[in-house]
């Protein structure tokens, strides 16, 4: 009875309720202020779900420096969609001068949830709605998880087995739900196999636990399917990168918008706090050095604003490094929320995934014990002679903030994202004409980046996605350029707070109009009367 | 439809499609057949000239109309500019549907400027269909195999090559516009045809300090001067002016991206692999071809035609990517025979002998789809004088100029001509035509088509032919019988490549017994072995990893009841076969 009750309560209290806070659709939000925001559809998922998005800013949104915010990219992260929506709502509804000023000069795109197919399922497991024949038996998705103990929640199942690759925790104080991976080299002996809770639905196991739940619903794992460091031949990672339609829609959107300067991803991967861990090896390539400096300055500035700390271990095919190395935009990532350490003695600086799981379980046990089931033995119909135990947190419980924290979580996200948006580049142009006699003028342009991020990322040019600043000079009739070109590019980005100069010699009197800018820097026009 | 009507229909289609050709008086048919090409084909195609997309379409449709029993044409998608991407399926349906037989996938013209690749693929379709009635070897091939032929996977740029000024090297890209120079405009500064002859050649002008001179034997040819020499000519390799006024010449023409760097294995961004575009299959043409291949898991052989240089290329495209010994041995063997069939061609490994290719088509075919692919680089400078040419894969310029003089009578080279350059005043324009250097002249085209076709037919021939032999029974007592069957692969290529079995790219081959209740089953280590490892589930359907080339696999079932039994092998890539036991 207790399990049945828990089944009803767990998803509701931990999962669904907080999300209703900002469940108001983006279209409704945007319609409140059509001069400030426009809802749009990024694309559709493999399961045909619509990827809602909103563009926020005044005027021509695709022509101004922009920040793109991505929520819900991980299969078990329904919660950050709410933080992303909260930020959108703040920008749309705030009357503060600073918000108005930002939206006058910049654009913010928000895609609150990308992994919609996975979020819609109850199992909390990765993979979109594409079908596949994972076990190559000619059937698709025929052996997925089942609610073996009838508690309405799909958890984990451990099976005592000679081929086990997990052992019990080392010491008795450790979190009992977390099994220790066996180190073969150290002569370690495994005891348990870990499988999602379920039966051998397609009857191909003959008592081999590996054949249980080996072909469930869940196709391509979005957050393992980008081109960055993609791991081929790995379960659910996609046979090739970019199989997930949501990722393709995202890439097409970004490539079509050279004005996007930075991407922020709510993610377990955290490059705000672990920038050095993630970026260090790649910084050996000198071409990326200017970008690295800008990344580092940003993470230094924002790290303290991000209250929640993720991990510096980036799995293959994830989004944060992809957004930088393959989409060519400055890319920042941190979780919207994680369980805080259960006690103040836990001061590990760089927690591993295992450390994070341990902290999370400890917190869950302290704050929402009903969401956790300790290993509980069951009679498994397909494994009659084996010890089988079911346990673990309810799906999404580890990644969803308690209801009373949601407001604080969203406020933190909004403060962080607003601070990031304010760092977008801001081009200021001044022009000076110096007469050299006989109708010849030396014209000097000074370009200043009043923002913090560079006017484009070096990587953005390398992947042909962004444009350097272009200076176009429109002369009056009878004027000629003695030095300089009617079009000239400033190939190097102007760093935050930095300046660049361009010079030309103009022969002849009249009005010169000079347009300076790029989609990612913004565009300014200056006019000079030469006489 | 009455058979006699077909030639008429085909001729009619050709008339509709190719009016210029059809209006000319027809010469009398040849009195005596040369070996090789059919003497009186139902669809007349001249194999000493090149066809644009409309021409390709007309030939395919005429072939389909003439051979409706053997061939179908379908559009597998549209190019960026809306041209159909055609695939012709050819097999003898009397022995099974196309998707039940091992298939050979042939595509051409992914690099649109590599023009003759399309004629080679078309010739293959034409030859198979036109020879089928009379050639027993072709009949046998089409009984056991399927051909999927995609003659032109970048049709926008193929038409651009013919209709717009180009060099022999352009357009390698497709026609999706791209802002190559980052000025916000796309394709705004292409080369320009200053002399209006349809060819982008070179420009030269006399200039103090110029580092070029004319060749001592042929003053049409410019050569770089020696380090201790004063020469006096400046040379630009592409004709044109600075259309967008940014001070850089011809820096943003068609594209640029490389459709053969846009595939799903080992894709790398533009700074590692130039032209890879945004992500694997971000282009409509590569996506359509990949989707077609994914939807036809019976494809086991692949050929992607390119030029130039006379190569039979196999992967990997990148150093360090895994190679599988048994697969490589089969590829080496087929390529070795190919070197004999294609004089002047060499069997080479892409990364090691040519250059590194990230995200190439044939690597994707192999690593993700379990297809055994070759890339043939057509046209070899060896064919100029049937001797080795200096100058690497492309051959020495001097040899081409001499060939032009002796065999083309000057048709391949545009003589230097003065033109007014918008930026620089008078310059001279001249050099090789776009149709020279990579494309064979008329008299070498048909030979190139036939020899390369023959190589792909060998490749297709070596795809598996499965046979169930020796269905035997042995009474075990207690009403139980052991039934054994041996499956033989009569060809060189295994039913599943090693890369496939290693990574489970496709399902195993299935050998199914029907006609009795099966209690247990499994694969025997050898035919003489009397034990087998029992299979866990579905005992009637035994999973076999693969049937290797010229080898056999023996399967055993323990059954209750008596025969006759039917044993069927169903291999996704290796085809099907059935045998019924006597009793």
**What oligomeric state do these chains adopt?**
heterodimer
Structural class of chain B: alpha+beta
Mind telling me the C-alpha Rg of chain B?
28 Å
Number of helices of chain B: 14
How many helices of chain A in DSSP terms?
12
Average pLDDT confidence of chain A is 88
**Helicity of chain A, in percent?**
10-25%
Q: Trace the largest sheet of chain B across and list its strands.
A: 1-2-4-3-9-12-10-11
Sheet having the most strands of chain B: 8 strands, mixed
Widest β-sheet, arrangement of strands of chain A: 1-2-4-3-9-10
Largest beta-sheet characterization of chain A: 6 strands, mixed
**Model regions low in confidence, pLDDT < 50 over at least 5 residues of chain B:** 1-22
**Radius of gyration of chain A from CA coordinates:** 27 Å
Mean pLDDT of chain B: 93
Net shape of chain B: elongated
Calculate the terminal CA-CA distance of chain B, rounded to whole Å: 44 Å
* Secondary-structure content class of chain A: alpha+beta
Give the fraction of residues assigned to helices of chain B.
Answer: 25-40%
Describe this structure in words.
The complex is a heterodimer of chains A (531) and B (583). Chain A is an alpha+beta fold and 531 residues long. Chain A is 23% helix and 24% strand. Chain A is built from twelve helices and 20 strands. In chain A, strands 1-2-4-3-9-10 form a six-stranded mixed β-sheet, sandwiched between helices. In chain A, α3 (80-93) packs across α11. Chain A is elongated and about 100 Å long. The N and C termini of chain A lie far apart (92 Å). Chain B is of the alpha+beta class and 583 residues long. Chain B has helices at residues 5-17, 19-22, 53-66, 116-131, 136-144, 155-163, 284-294, 325-341, 350-354, 361-369, 382-385, 397-408, 442-461, 498-503; strands at 71-78, 84-90, 103-108, 146-151, 202-206, 212-214, 222-224, 233-236, 299-307, 311-314, 346-349, 372-378, 413-421, 425-432, 466-477, 480-489, 509-514, 517-524, 532-534, 541-544, 552-560, 566-571, 575-580. In chain B, the strands form five sheets. Chain B has an eight-stranded mixed β-sheet with strand order 1-2-4-3-9-12-10-11, with helices on both faces. A five-stranded antiparallel β-sheet of chain B has the order 15-16-21-18-19, with no helix packed on it. Chain B is elongated. Residues 1-22 of chain B have low confidence and may be disordered. Classes of the chains: A alpha+beta (531), B alpha+beta (583). The A-B interface holds A 133, 136-138, 202-206, 208, 211, 227, 232-233, 239-242, 248, 251-252, 255, 258, 287, 325-326, 459, 461-464, 466-468, 470, 485-489, 518-519 and B 178-184, 244-247, 263-265, 267, 269-271, 278-282, 364, 367-368, 503-508, 510, 536-538.
């Amino acid at each position: 009875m207790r399990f049945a009750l828990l089944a009803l309560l767990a998803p509701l209290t931990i999962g669904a309720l907080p999300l209703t806070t900002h469940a108001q659709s983006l279209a409704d939000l945007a319609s409140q202020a059509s001069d400030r925001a426009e809802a749009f559809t990024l694309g559709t998922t493999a399961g045909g779900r619509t990827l809602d998005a909103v563009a926020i800013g005044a005027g021509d949104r695709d022509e101004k420096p922009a920040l793109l915010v991505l929520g819900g990219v991980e299969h078990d992260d329904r919660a950050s969609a709410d933080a992303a929506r909260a930020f959108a709502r703040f920008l749309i509804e705030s009357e503060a001068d600073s918000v108005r000023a930002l939206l006058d000069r910049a654009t913010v795109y928000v895609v609150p949830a990308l992994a919609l197919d996975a979020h819609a399922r109850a199992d909390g497991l990765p993979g979109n709605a594409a079908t596949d024949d994972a076990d190559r038996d000619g059937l698709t998705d025929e052996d997925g998880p089942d609610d073996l103990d009838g508690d309405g929640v799909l958890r984990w199942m451990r099976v005592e087995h000679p081929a086990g690759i997990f052992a019990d925790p080392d010491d008795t104080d450790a979190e009992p739900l977390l099994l220790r991976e066996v180190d073969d080299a150290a002569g370690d002996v495994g005891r348990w196999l870990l499988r999602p809770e379920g039966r051998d639905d397609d009857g191909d196991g003959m008592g081999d636990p590996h054949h249980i739940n080996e072909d469930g619903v869940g196709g391509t794992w979005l957050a393992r399917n980008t081109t960055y460091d993609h791991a081929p031949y790995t379960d659910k990672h996609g046979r090739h990168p970019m199989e997930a339609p949501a990722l393709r829609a995202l890439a097409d959107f970004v490539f079509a918008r050279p004005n996007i300067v930075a991407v922020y991803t709510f993610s377990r991967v955290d490059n705000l706090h672990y920038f050095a861990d993630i970026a260090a090896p790649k910084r050996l390539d000198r071409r990326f050095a200017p970008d690295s400096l800008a990344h580092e300055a940003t993470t230094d500035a924002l790290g303290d604003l991000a209250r929640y700390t993720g991990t510096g271990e980036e799995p293959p095919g994830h989004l944060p490094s992809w957004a930088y190395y393959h989409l060519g935009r400055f890319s920042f990532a941190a979780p919207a929320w994680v369980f805080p350490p259960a006690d103040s003695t836990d001061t590990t600086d760089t927690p591993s995934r295992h450390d994070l799981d341990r902290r999370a379980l400890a917190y869950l046990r302290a704050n929402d014990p009903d969401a956790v089931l300790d290993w509980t033995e069951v009679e498994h119909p397909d494994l009659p002679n084996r010890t089988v135990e079911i346990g673990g947190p309810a799906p999404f419980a580890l990644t969803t903030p308690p209801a009373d924290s949601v407001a604080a979580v969203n406020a933190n996200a909004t403060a962080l994202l607003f601070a990031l948006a304010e760092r977008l580049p801001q081009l200021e142009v001044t022009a000076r004409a110096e007469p050299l006699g006989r109708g010849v003028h030396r014209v000097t342009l000074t370009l200043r980046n009043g923002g913090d991020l560079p006017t484009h990322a070096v990587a953005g040019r390398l992947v042909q996605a962004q444009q350097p600043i272009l200076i176009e000079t429109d002369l009056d009739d009878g004027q000629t350029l003695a030095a300089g070109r009617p079009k000239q590019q400033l190939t190097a980005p102007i760093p935050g707070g930095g300046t660049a100069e361009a010079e030309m010699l103009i022969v002849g009197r009249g009005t010169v109009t000079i347009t300076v800018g790029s989609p990612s820097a913004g565009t300014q026009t200056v006019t000079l009367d030469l006489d | 439809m009455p058979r006699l009507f077909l030639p008429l229909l085909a001729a009619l289609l050709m008339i509709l499609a190719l009016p210029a050709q059809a209006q000319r008086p027809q010469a009398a048919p040849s009195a005596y057949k040369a070996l090789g090409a059919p003497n009186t084909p139902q669809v007349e195609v001249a194999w000493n000239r090149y066809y644009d997309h409309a021409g390709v379409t007309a030939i395919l449709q005429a072939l389909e109309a003439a051979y409706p029993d053997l061939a179908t044409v379908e559009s597998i998608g549209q190019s960026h500019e809306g041209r159909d991407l055609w695939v012709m399926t050819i097999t003898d349906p009397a022995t099974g549907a196309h998707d039940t037989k091992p298939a050979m996938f042939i595509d051409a013209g992914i690099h649109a400027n590599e023009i003759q690749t399309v004629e080679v693929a078309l010739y293959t379709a034409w030859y198979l269909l036109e020879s089928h009635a009379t050639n027993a070897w072709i009949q046998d091939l089409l009984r056991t195999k399927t051909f999927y032929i995609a003659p032109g996977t970048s049709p926008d740029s193929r038409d651009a090559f013919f209709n717009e000024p180009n060099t022999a090297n352009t357009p390698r890209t497709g026609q999706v516009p791209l802002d190559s120079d980052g000025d916000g405009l796309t394709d705004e500064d292409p080369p320009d045809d200053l002399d209006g002859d349809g060819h982008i050649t070179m420009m030269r002008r006399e200039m103090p300090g110029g580092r070029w001179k004319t060749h001592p034997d042929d003053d049409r040819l410019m050569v770089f001067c020696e380090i201790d020499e004063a020469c006096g000519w400046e040379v630009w390799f592409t004709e044109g002016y600075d259309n967008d006024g940014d001070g850089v010449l011809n820096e943003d023409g068609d594209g640029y991206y490389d459709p053969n760097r846009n595939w799903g294995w080992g894709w790398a961004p533009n700074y590692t692999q130039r032209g890879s575009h945004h992500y694997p299959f971000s282009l409509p043409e590569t996506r359509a071809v990949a989707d077609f291949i994914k939807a036809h898991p019976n494809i086991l052989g692949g050929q992607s035609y390119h030029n130039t240089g006379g190569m039979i290329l196999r992967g990997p495209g990148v150093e360090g990517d895994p190679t599988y010994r048994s697969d490589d041995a089969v590829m080496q063997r087929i390529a070795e025979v190919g070197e004999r069939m294609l004089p002047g061609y060499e069997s080479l490994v892409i990364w090691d002998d040519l250059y590194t290719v990230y995200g190439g088509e044939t690597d994707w075919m192999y690593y993700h789809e379990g297809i055994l692919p070759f890339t043939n680089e057509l046209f070899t400078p060896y064919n100029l004088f049937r001797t080795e040419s200096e100058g690497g894969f492309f051959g020495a310029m001097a040899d081409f100029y001499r060939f032009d003089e002796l065999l083309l009578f000057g048709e391949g080279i545009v003589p230097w001509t003065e033109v007014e350059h918008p930026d620089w005043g008078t310059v001279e324009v001249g050099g090789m035509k776009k149709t020279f250097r990579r494309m064979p002249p008329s008299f070498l085209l048909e030979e190139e088509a036939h020899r390369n076709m023959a190589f792909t037919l060998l490749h297709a021939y070596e795809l598996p032919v499965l046979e169930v032999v020796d269905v035997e029974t042995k009474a075990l007592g207690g009403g139980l019988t052991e039934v054994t069957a041996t499956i033989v692969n009569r060809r060189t290529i295994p039913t599943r490549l090693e890369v496939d079995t290693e990574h489970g790219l496709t399902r195993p081959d299935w050998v199914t017994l029907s006609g009795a209740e099966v209690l247990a089953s499994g694969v025997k280590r050898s035919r003489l072995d009397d034990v087998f490892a029992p299979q866990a589930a579905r005992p009637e359907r035994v999973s076999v990893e693969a049937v290797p080339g010229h080898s056999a696999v023996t399967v055993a079932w323990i059954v209750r009841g008596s025969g006759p039994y039917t044993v069927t092998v169903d291999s996704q890539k290796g085809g099907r076969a059935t045998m019924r036991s006597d009793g």
